[in-house]
Design goal:
Layout lengths: L2 H9 L4 E4 L6 E6 L2 E7 L6 E5 L2 H10 L3 E3 L8 E5 L6 H17 L3 H7 L1
Antiparallel strand pairs: 1-2, 2-3, 3-4, 4-6, 5-6
């Protein structure tokens, strides 16, 4: 999956927007204003940093070499996913959906209902 496909998939999730609040080369993905992912646009290899629950993050990092702790967030709650042959499109979609759902679950009830 290339960067544009990655961005398009994320933006297909209801209520998702993107912006550049950090710098000109990092696309921030948000749902109802809450961040769930980052896509660095200046990397030669496509990658995405996603929110993840701590237990799942540990298991994923043990099973896939392309998933590493993100250095710029709390390592217990974020993972950087390098897009390489070890990550299938279905697994990548699952990881993105998991991150999205974690953020949606933490939204106030009224905002959650708008996304259903």
């Amino acid at each position: 999956m290339n960067v544009e496909e990655l961005r398009d998939y994320c933006l297909s999730l209801k209520g998702t927007t993107d912006c550049f609040p950090f710098d000109e080369v990092t696309l921030v993905l948000k749902v109802q204003g809450k961040m769930f992912g980052l896509i660095p646009l200046d990397n030669p290899e496509p990658q995405i940093t996603l929110k993840c629950d701590p237990e799942r993050a540990i298991a994923l990092r043990e099973d896939y070499s392309a998933i590493v702790p993100a250095w710029h967030f709390n390592k217990k709650h974020w993972n950087t996913v390098m897009i390489d042959p070890s990550i299938s499109r279905s697994l990548l979609s699952e990881l993105i959906n998991h991150s999205y759902e974690l953020v949606v679950a933490g939204l106030p009830k009224k905002l959650r209902e708008e996304l259903l």
